[in-house]
Amino acid sequence: MYKITHLITSFATMAILLSCFGKAENSKTEDSAISVTVTNVRSENAVFYNSYPSNIVALKEVELRGMVSGCITGIYFGEGKEVRNGEKLYEIDRRKYEATYLQAQSGVKIAEDNLEKVQRDADRYTELAKQDAIARQLMDNTLTDLKNAKNQLNSATSELIKAKTDFEYSVIKAPFDGTIGFSNVKFGAMVTPGQTILNTISSDDPIGVDFEINETELGRFQSMNQVATTRNDSIFRITLPSNALYPYSGKLSVIDRAVDKQTGSIRVRITVPNKERILKPGMSCKVLVLNDNSGKQLLVPFKAVLEQLGEYFVFVVKEKTVSQVKIALGPKVQSNVIVLNGLSGGETIAVDGIQKLHDGSAIKIATSQK
Fold it and tell me: Nearest 10 degrees: CA dihedral of 276, 277, 278, 281?
């Protein structure tokens, strides 16, 4: 009887000890659980762009050069101002060119009068020759004089054209609407024909934006080139040097004729409105091209992604533990990132505290992000 009583007492003691040990283990497990915030993987309409370094270029730009020699006798524009097609900009001393032009006009008039006289003689002698009333030698001389008179008129006309051209070149006019820069010459400066650069003028509106793309993207841009775009399209946007978004969208204009063999890239140009003259030739900016994958995509907070050896993972919550899942990332969209594969949507993932997690870690949820 004593032995039976002792055995029962021993079993009771062991049961109490086991119960206390289990409670301690449970308490220890709860205390070791990692506190995390979580969010649900959702599908949203994501609009994102590929960025390309670019430069602003004028669609029309020309260096103004003096084509005749002489001193600058007039400057008729404001530096950095807009000018109109045909507007007078510079004047080179015109006096000798005007005199030559007037002399050439007189030369043409003399040649015309001489031709008229010789033509009358030739007509008269031709009628006499029909009647055999004139010497053949005189007729031949008259025809030679007529031919020479025509040649003299042609020569005089050529001299007139040359003199008129030089006279007109002594005034430099704007070849198109645009903005003119700082003058390279001052009043009284000597101009060397074809060498002296007076100024540069460039068009303003619209204006071009040039950037380089990889040859692997060529097919995509050629497809864009076949689609008509309007001012309200958002395929091409521009960010300014200040990182501000330019208010107008662009339109694909030119794809260069060949790929650069050294870099494997090809130049592309878009055009954008520039009525406010915000964009200036030579400016650096970025062209944003709407990504083909824009639309419904799975989005997760970028801080929920763990990178290990060039691979990316998230921790999917399963009851009170997490499972490490490998994912493929797309572009970032503000503070989120697109998940191309690895998730199907609807999963709950850990966001904050993931640095302490590993596959199978016990967790306790602090808050849930929306």
Answer: 160
Domain C-terminal end among 266, 290, 314: 290
Q: DSSP readout, 18-29?
A: HHHHHHHHHHHH
Predicted structure pTM score: 0.64
Convert the pLDDT of each residue in 293-349 to its tens digit: 666 778 888 888 998 888 899 899 988 888 889 988 877 777 888 888 888 888 888
Distances from the Cα of 343 to the Cα of 41, 69, 108, 198, 326, angstroms: 8, 76, 89, 65, 9
Better-scored residue on pLDDT, 267 or 34: 267
Residues 219 and 280 in one domain: yes
Q: Does residue 146 fall inside a structural domain? A: yes
What domain range includes position 215?
51-59+203-290
Residue 277 CB neighbours (<10 A): 11
201: burial class by Cβ within 10 Å (0-12, 13-18, 19+)?
buried
How far apart, in whole angstroms, are the C-alpha atoms of residue 270 and residue 224? 11
Please report the pLDDT score of residue 219 as a whole number. Answer: 87
Distance, in Å, from the CA atom of 248 to the CA atom of 287, rounded to the nearest integer, reads: 12
Assess contact for 48 and 329: CB atoms under 8 A. no
